[in-house]
C-alpha cells in the first residue's frame, strides 16, 4: 500500500475514533486485499458496541467530520456488534470476508 494512502487511512481512523464509540474499524476491499486501482475507494467497516444513535446519524457524523480530512472517496458500512458478529459467522457474507480477509485498523 502506498504511504500516502496508509497515512490517509490512519487520519480517517483517528477521526472516526474521536467522534463515535467504535469498537472495531476494519479496512476491506481492494486496499485491504492488495489490488487497488486508480478508481478504488477506501472501504471501511465500523462496528459499534451499542445502538446509541442510528446508523444513519453515525454515517452523517462521520461524513461531516471527514470533509476536511479525506482526500479519497470513502465507502462506509456501520454495524452494531451483535449484528456484525452474527453475520460474520456466515461464510457467504461480506462481513465474513471483512473479518477473514480485511485489516482490523482499530479494536477497543
Structural features, described:
The protein is α+β, with helices and mostly antiparallel strands and 108 residues long. The protein has a single domain (1-107), classed as Beta Polymerase, domain 2 (2-Layer Sandwich). It contains five helices and four strands, in the order αβαβαβααβ. The protein has helices at residues 3-19, 30-33, 55-66, 81-88, 94-101, and strands spanning 22-28, 42-48, 74-80, 103-107. The chain has a four-stranded mixed sheet with strand order 3-2-1-4, with helices on both faces. β2 (42-48), α3 and β3 form a beta-alpha-beta unit. α1 packs across α3 (55-66) and α4 (81-88) packs across α5 (94-101). The longest helix is centred in the first third of the chain and has 17 residues, at 3-19. The chain is globular and about 35 Å long. The two termini are 24 Å apart.
Total strand segments = 4
The percentage of residues in β strands lies in: 15-25%
Give the biggest sheet: 4 strands, mixed
How would you name the oligomeric state of the polypeptide chains in this document? single chain
Low-confidence stretches: none
CATH architecture: 2-Layer Sandwich
Helix content: 40-55%
Encode the helix/strand succession as letters: HEHEHEHHE
Briefly, what CATH class? Alpha Beta
Number of helices in the DSSP assignment: 5
Q: Please tell me the total number of domains.
A: 1
CATH superfamily: Beta Polymerase, domain 2
Task: Evaluate the radius of gyration.
Answer: 13 Å
Amino acid at each position: 500500500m502506498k504511504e500516502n494512502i496508509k497515512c490517509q487511512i490512519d487520519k480517517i481512523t483517528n477521526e472516526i475514533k474521536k467522534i463515535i464509540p467504535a469498537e472495531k474499524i476494519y479496512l476491506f476491499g481492494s486496499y485491504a486485499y492488495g489490488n487497488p486501482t486508480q478508481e478504488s475507494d477506501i472501504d471501511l467497516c465500523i462496528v459499534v458496541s451499542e445502538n446509541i444513535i442510528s446508523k444513519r446519524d453515525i454515517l452523517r457524523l462521520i461524513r461531516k467530520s471527514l470533509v476536511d480530512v479525506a482526500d479519497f472517496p470513502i465507502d462506509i458500512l456501520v454495524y452494531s456488534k451483535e449484528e456484525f458478529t452474527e453475520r460474520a459467522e456466515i461464510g457467504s457474507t461480506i462481513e465474513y470476508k471483512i473479518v477473514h480477509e480485511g485489516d482490523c485498523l482499530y479494536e477497543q
